[in-house]
C-alpha cells in the first residue's frame, strides 16, 4: 500500500466512523409540512379600518362538540399542517391548540359575504373512520360592508358536507358574533351547524393579510378530502352554493 493509499484509507475510515456514530439530527420534517403540534400560526392580523372592523365584528364563536379543535393550517414560511391519521380517539392528539380562523370578504351580487373558515387535522367520527384534514366554515351574508350592526346580517350559513345550510332567522348571536358548532353524528363526518352555546375564538387572519407564500401553500397543497373554501379556485363556487 502506498503512502497516499494508506492516507486515503485512514481518512475514509474516519469519515465513515464519524458519520455512523454521530447523533441523529433532530427537528427535521418533510419539506412543506409541519406536525400539527408544532406548527405556529399567525397572530390576529386583519386590515386596518372598516374592513378589519367588519371581519372582527362578525367573527363566529365556535363550540367544538366532539373531534379536533381548530389548528393553524399554514405558517409564515408557507409550511402546512401535516394533519393526522383518523386513528384513536376522535380528538386524539388534537384536543388543544390556540387555533386559527381565516376570513375572506367579497361582494357577490348585491350582497356582501364574509367567509370564515377553520382547519382541523383530522375528521374522525370514531377510530378508523374518517380522513386526514378537514376544512369547515361559516358564511355570513351582509346587506353591505359599511356597518357592523346586528341589523346588517342577512343570513348565517354553516358548512355541511360540501354545502352550506343557510338560515335567515334561526341563528343566535353573541353581540354581533354568530354562534357555530362543530360536531359529528356517528358515523357521519363532522360538519358545522347553528347553536345557542357560546364557543371559543381563535386568532383571526384575513386572506389579504397572509404573505404570498402562505396563500400559495393553501392554494397548492393537496388537502385530501378537505377543500380550502376561501382560495381563488373555490370562493365563488362556495358563495354561489350558499343560497337562502
From TrEMBL:
Signal peptide: 1-22
Entry's family note: Belongs to the Necrosis inducing protein (NPP1) family.
Keyword presence, Signal: yes
Coiled-coil region list: none
Organism: Byssochlamys spectabilis (strain No. 5 / NBRC 109023) (Paecilomyces variotii)
Keywords: Signal, Virulence
Keyword set includes Signal: yes
Protein name according to UniProt: NPP1 domain protein
UniProt-listed InterPro entries: NPP1
TM stretches of this protein: none
Amino acid at each position: 500500500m502506498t503512502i497516499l493509499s494508506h492516507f486515503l484509507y485512514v481518512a475514509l475510515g474516519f469519515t465513515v466512523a464519524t458519520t455512523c456514530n454521530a447523533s441523529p439530527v433532530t427537528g427535521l420534517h418533510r419539506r412543506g409540512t409541519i406536525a400539527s403540534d408544532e406548527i405556529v400560526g399567525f397572530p390576529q392580523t386583519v386590515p386596518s379600518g372598516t374592513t378589519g372592523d367588519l371581519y372582527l365584528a362578525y367573527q363566529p364563536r365556535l363550540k367544538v362538540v366532539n373531534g379536533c379543535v381548530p389548528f393553524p393550517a399554514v405558517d409564515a414560511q408557507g409550511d402546512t399542517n401535516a394533519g393526522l391519521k383518523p386513528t384513536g380517539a376522535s380528538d386524539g392528539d388534537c384536543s388543544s391548540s390556540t387555533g386559527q380562523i381565516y376570513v375572506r370578504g367579497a361582494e357577490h351580487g348585491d350582497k356582501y359575504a364574509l367567509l370564515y373558515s377553520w382547519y382541523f387535522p383530522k375528521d374522525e367520527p370514531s377510530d378508523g373512520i374518517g380522513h386526514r384534514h378537514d376544512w369547515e366554515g361559516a358564511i355570513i351574508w351582509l346587506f353591505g360592508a359599511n356597518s357592523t350592526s346586528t341589523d346588517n346580517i342577512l343570513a348565517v350559513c354553516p358548512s355541511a358536507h360540501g354545502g352550506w345550510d343557510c338560515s335567515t332567522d334561526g341563528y343566535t348571536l353573541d353581540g354581533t358574533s354568530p354562534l357555530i358548532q362543530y360536531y359529528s353524528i356517528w358515523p357521519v363526518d363532522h360538519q358545522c351547524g347553528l347553536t345557542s352555546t357560546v364557543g371559543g375564538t381563535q386568532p383571526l387572519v384575513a386572506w389579504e393579510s397572509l404573505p404570498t407564500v402562505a396563500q400559495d401553500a393553501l392554494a397548492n397543497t393537496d388537502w385530501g378530502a378537505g377543500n380550502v373554501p376561501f382560495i381563488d379556485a373555490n370562493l365563488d363556487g362556495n358563495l354561489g352554493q350558499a343560497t337562502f
